[in-house]
Amino acid sequence: MVKLSSSDSIRPRSNYFTSQTLRLHYLEWGDPNAPVLVLQHGGFDHARSMDWLARELAGEWRVIAPDLRGHGNSAWSPDADYTMAALLMDFANLADALGQEKLTICAHSLGAMVTTRYAGIFPDRVARFVNIEGLALSSGRNSQRMIQPFAARVANWIRLHQEAAKRHPKRYASEEDAFARMREKNPYLSDDQVRHLTHHALRSNDDGTYSWKFDPRLNIWPVLDFPEEEVIAMWQAVTCPVLFLHGSNTFMPNPGKDGRIEHFRNARLIEYDNASHWLHHDRFPTVLEDIRAFLAEG
Q1: GO cellular component annotations, sorted alphabetically (predicted)?
Q2: Co-location of 204 and 126 in the same domain
Q3: Which domain holds residue 173?
Q4: Which of 126, 152, 155, 288 is the most buried (most CB within 10 A)?
C-alpha cells in the first residue's frame, strides 16, 4: 500500500508560466540546481497524481510536475483547444521556461503521447524518457476515423463542441461522494491513494458542492490530427533511450506486441502483472525501482 501523508517533509513549490496566453501551473520539487526530471500526468488527471514518484525522486532531481491545460490548477482553454499541437506548444514553452538544455521525462498516457512527440521534434533536448502507457492507440482506430468524409468529421466536431458548451461540470455534495466515484472507477488503488487523488482533483463551488478541476470539453477529438506517418517519423527521430512501461490489465495496446516499439532506436519494455493503465500507482514500489534504475543508467 502506498501512503502519502500531510506530514511528509518534502513538499512541492507551486509555480506558473504562460503559454499561448494561458496561465499554466506546475509543481517543483527538490534542489533547483539539480538536473530536471519532468513528470507529466495523463488526461483527466492532475500534477498531484505524480506526488509519490516526485517525493521519492526529489532527492536526486529537480522534479517538475506540470498540469496540462484544462487540468488541475492550469487555465482552461477558452475555445476548448486541447489538440496535440496546442499541448505540444505548451510543453515546448515549459521546457524553455525551465532554462535547461536537456530534460529527462517520465510521462503517463496523454502526457506521454505529447512528450514522446516532443522528443522526436526536439531530440537534442531530451536525455532519457520513461513512457507509461502513452504512445498512441494502434493505427486501426485512428485510420477508421479518418475514413469518414471530411465534411462529416467537421459537422461532428461542431456538434460535439455545441453540446459541450451546454454542459456543466458535475457537482458532488461532498468530497466523500467524489471519493466514492473515484473509488468505484479505480479498483486497483488503495483507499489512501484514492483519497489523495480525489482531494487534489476537486475544486469547491460557491454553493458548497465540489466539481472535478478538469475542463469537461477535454474529450473532443480534433478535426485534423498529426498524420499517422508523421507521428511514426517523430518516433523514429527520438535519439534518447526510452523505457516503455505497460500493465497486463489495461485497455491500451502493448507496443511491444504490435510492433510500434520497433520505430524507436533505443527502447525496451517492461510489463507488470496485476496492473492497470495507472500502473505507476498499482505497482508503485516496483515501478519506482525500475524507473530509478533506468534513470541511473544515464
Answers
A1: membrane
A2: no
A3: 168-214
A4: 126
Residues 126 and 260 in one domain: yes
Structure-block grid coordinates of residue 114: 505529447
CATH assignment of the domain containing 236? 3.40.50.1820
Q: Please give the model's pTM, rounded to 2 decimal places.
A: 0.94
Longest dimension (CA), the chain: 56
Nearest-5° Cα angle at 286, 296 to 260: 75
User: Which amino acid is residue 74, in one-letter code?
Assistant: S
What is the H or E stretch that residue 126 is in? strand 126-132
Q: What is the pLDDT of residues 53-106, one digit of tens each?
A: 999 999 999 999 999 999 999 999 999 999 999 999 999 999 999 999 999 999
Question: One-letter amino acid identity for 88?
Answer: L
Grid cell 521519492 — which residue? Answer: 56
Grid cell listed for 234: 517523430
Residues found in the chain: 298
Distance between terminal CA atoms of the chain?
30
Report the 10 Å Cβ neighbour count for 126.
24
The vertex-191 CA angle with 203 and 288, nearest 5°, equals: 95
Cβ-defined contacts of 222-226 (< 8 Å, 24+): 222/83, 222/84, 222/157, 223/150, 223/153, 223/154, 223/157, 225/83, 225/84, 225/142, 226/84, 226/85, 226/117
Q: Are residues 250 and 127 part of one domain?
A: yes
Q: How many domains does the chain have?
A: 2
